[in-house]
């Protein structure tokens, strides 16, 4: 079945460490997105990509980086510059006339 | 810029009672509107979408929503709540010319269903 796979489901980061969250889709969608979810704040857009080798900052891009080398993959790196990384991270994908489809998320915590 | 407001971060309903979740949006162009549901530690699942066709939209699990342009609202309803409806619900508006473009989300409404 087609879908979005996020891994790992739980991730722990030490102070000063970069961590990378994986997002892979086999839906043949052109666009991919990363959101951060905090309690009571809904979802906030971190980065998005509408085509391979191109991506744009969302509303809260500081402290994060992404790459889009393949259509299927859109990894998110949480850098040490992100001072409050504890959150639930959701990856989504879409095609032009269809709503976004979401993965099951990665929960990142600080050790 | 588009924005979405969900009135009430928590709603408590009795099993069998009406579920009403409120969503108001602001948009400078005709919007695409969505309701998503999230169960604990899971991603978001699409309940229904409005894409400028019928103003009353029916979705999965017995939910429906009505688009009211004059009120800039897209409230979600279900006539009879079931225990399995306990979840968090998000209203979202699409930025751009197509349903698959960037989404702006409301803050979410958590629904508790009492037996």
What share of the residues of chain A lie within helices? Answer: under 10%
The amount of helix of chain B comes to under 10%
**How many E strands of chain B?**
11
How would you classify the quaternary structure? heterodimer
**Helix and strand sequence of chain B:** EEEEEEEEEEE
Keywords:
heterodimer; A: 111 residues; mainly beta; 4-stranded antiparallel beta sheet; 11 strands; 0% helix; globular; B: 115 residues; 6-stranded mixed beta sheet
Protein model, in words:
The complex is a heterodimer of chains A (111) and B (115). By secondary structure, chain A is mostly beta strands. Chain A has strands at residues 4-7, 10-13, 19-25, 31-37, 43-51, 54-57, 64-66, 76-78, 87-94, 101-102, 106-110. In chain A, the strands form 2 sheets. In chain A, strands 2, 4, 5, 6, 9, 10 and 11 form a 7-stranded mixed β-sheet that branches. In chain A, strands 1-3-8-7 form a 4-stranded antiparallel β-sheet, with no helix packed on it. In chain A, 40% of the residues are buried. Chain B has strands spanning 3-7, 10-14, 19-26, 32-38, 44-50, 56-58, 64-68, 73-78, 87-94, 103-105, 109-114. In chain B, 0% of the residues lie in helices and 55% in strands. Chain B is mainly beta. At the A-B interface, strand 4, strand 5, strand 9 and strand 10 of A face strand 5 of B.
């Amino acid at each position: 079945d087609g879908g979005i796979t996020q891994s790992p489901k739980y991730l722990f980061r030490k102070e000063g460490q970069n961590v990378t969250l994986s997002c892979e889709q086999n839906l043949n969608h052109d666009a991919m997105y990363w959101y951060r979810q905090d309690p009571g704040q809904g979802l906030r857009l971190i980065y998005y990509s509408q085509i391979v080798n191109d991506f744009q900052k969302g509303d809260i891009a500081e402290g994060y980086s992404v790459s889009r080398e393949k259509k299927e993959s859109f990894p998110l790196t949480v850098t040490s510059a992100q001072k409050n990384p504890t959150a639930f991270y959701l990856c989504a994908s879409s095609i032009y006339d269809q709503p976004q489809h979401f993965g099951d998320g990665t929960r990142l915590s600080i050790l | 810029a588009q924005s979405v407001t969900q009135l009430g971060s928590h709603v408590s309903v009795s099993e069998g009672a009406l579920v009403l979740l409120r969503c108001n949006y602001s948009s400078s162009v005709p919007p695409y509107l969505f309701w998503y549901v999230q169960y604990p530690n899971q991603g978001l699942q699409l309940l229904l979408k409005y894409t400028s066709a019928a103003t009353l939209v029916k979705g999965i699990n017995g939910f429906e929503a009505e688009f009211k342009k004059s009120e800039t609202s897209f409230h979600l309803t279900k006539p009879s709540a079931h225990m399995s409806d306990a979840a968090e619900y998000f209203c979202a508006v699409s930025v751009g010319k197509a349903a698959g473009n960037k989404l702006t989300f409301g803050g979410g409404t958590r629904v508790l269903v009492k037996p």
